[in-house]
Amino acid sequence: MSELLHDETEGAGTGRGGTAAGAGADAEARVSGAAATEGAPAAGDVPATEGAPAAGDVPAAGDGGLAARAAALDAADPLAKRRELFALDDGAVYLDGNSLGALPRHVPARMAQVIAHEWGELRIRSWGESGWWTAPERIGDRIAPLVGAAPGQVVVGDSTSVNVLKALVGAVRLADAYAGEGRDGGGPVRDEILVDATTFPTDGYIAESAARMTGRRLVPVAPGDVPDAVGPRTAAVLVNHVDYRTGRLHDLPGVTAAVRDAGALAVWDLCHSAGALPVDLDANGVDLAVGCTYKYLNGGPGAPAFLYVAERHQARFDSPLPGWNSHADPFAMTPGYAAVDGARRGRVGTPDILSMLALESALDVWDGVAVGEVRAKSLALTDFFLECVRAYVPEGRLTCLTPAAHAERGSQVALSCPDASAVMERLIERGVVGDLRRPDVLRFGFTPLYVGYADAERAARVLAEVCAEVAAEGSTERSTEVSAAR
Question: Mean pLDDT over all residues of the chain?
């Protein structure tokens, strides 16, 4: 990693750049006057990462004060040097890592080696000599510590959607298996699947299919209501750790404990939390989990997702997609299926080696990084960004959908804006890259490995300029319409 940090490869530089149901009333505090939720520090009071000043240590004095504070925070940031590892454009701010993480600068050279040597020269021999065959579990073991899992429980391959199907159907089949072993004591049949009512749409589609496949009834439930809704008829529960629209962080430990106490199994979607904050799957007793690798893990577009199967369930895990790659003896080519041991049961067909090895190389940027350190900076960055937005954007122009309380916030800020489409289009034109969730949500993802405080300050400043321009143009258009009507 030290070699990567001091690599002077050309192109290094500064970064480029309707509330969901159940989000809660506190998520709708107006940006201009939002205060921290009780028990959470205000935007300027967030504790600093070790060795860095707190966001409120330098008094603000208008625009210059916030810019000066940003510079001081960046100078003291222990993660600041990580930015050099990514291919980013000078003078722009990239706040869309919650959709697609930036390219680690060393990955192209690694992929050139894979293509020219491993594929071009070794060809079929690379399945053994280059370690292609073992890549899914080898890379899974590299992701495992980032989500709080011991080795042997994470396997990489297929898309998030495919892994959600494996995990959810697998969880229902586990519930059936345990009921058959008498764990339910002859109680009611577990004929329900609970699903996060605010879930990313694909998870909902997959959950509907899983319910049909397993003969269950699908019950949408707000994540915060799961502890009250789960019961003796529940087979499995599928919940997103972080809401993709609002950035709300759901209570993984509490929900998992409630699901476990009810005798059901918990399946978590970690797409917006893996690589952004501590997850602690093992410590919290999670049963199964899935996550993508192209967001905060920077694996590249369409990078394969991961599947976590807790060790205690692996012997009974029955994937709905048994493929030759998860066969105990894949090259025997026998007509009967016999599942391999361990998390490898989550494999299906031939893995996408090029994407797989790009992901493996990208994970090098995590060498020597503690997820807790990333989380501390994420909270400080989002606090500081919201403080800058409050300072720069006129009151009433934007509404913050992201909770103020740290315990309820992921690593993104979602702002509701009536002219969101026009605002985001102009932000991107000016080098502040976020994204839009129709009809009115501006999303800004903060990836602490390459986003800094100066990025946050500049993004808020440009956002204020754009909001003012769009509002003025709207006023002019309305005035013209009134005149024409008269």
Answer: 87
Comparing CA positions, the residue from 150, 105, 158 lying closest to residue 355 is 158
Cβ of 5: how many Cβ atoms within 10 Å?
14
Does 86 score more than 60 pLDDT? yes
Catalytic residues: 200, 269, 294-295, 443
CB 184 within 8 A of CB 178: yes
DSSP string, 45-114: -PPPPTTS--TTSS---HHHHHHHHHHHHHHH-TTGGGGGGB---TT-EE-BTTTSPPPBTTHHHHHHHI
Are the CB atoms for 238 and 196 separated by under 8 Å? yes
Asked whether the beta carbons of 153 and 312 are under 8 A apart, the reply is: no
State how far the alpha carbon of 258 is from the alpha carbons of 143, 221, 237, in Å. Answer: 26, 14, 11
Per the CB < 8 A criterion, the answer to whether 337 and 322 are in contact is yes
Based on its alpha-carbon atoms, the radius of gyration of the chain, rounded to whole angstroms, reads 24
Question: Can you read off the two tokens belonging to residue 191?
Answer: 């004929």
Residue type, 373: E
Residue 7, pLDDT score: 33
- Give the other-Cβ count within 10 Å of 436's Cβ: 18
Across the range 267-273, mean pLDDT stands at 98
Task: Say if residues 402 and 444 touch (Cβ distance below 8 Å).
Answer: no
Give 265's strand partners: 236
Give the C-alpha separation, 451 to 357, whole Å: 25
What pTM value is reported for the model?
0.86
**pLDDT single digits (tens) 97-156:** 999 999 999 999 999 999 999 999 999 999 999 999 999 999 999 999 999 999 999 999
pLDDT at residue 224 greater than cutoff 90: yes
Q: Could you tell me if 301 and 147 are in contact, meaning their C-beta atoms sit under 8 angstroms apart? A: no
pLDDT tens for 310-335 read 999 999 999 999 999 999 999 999 99
DSSP H/E element including 170: helix 160-180
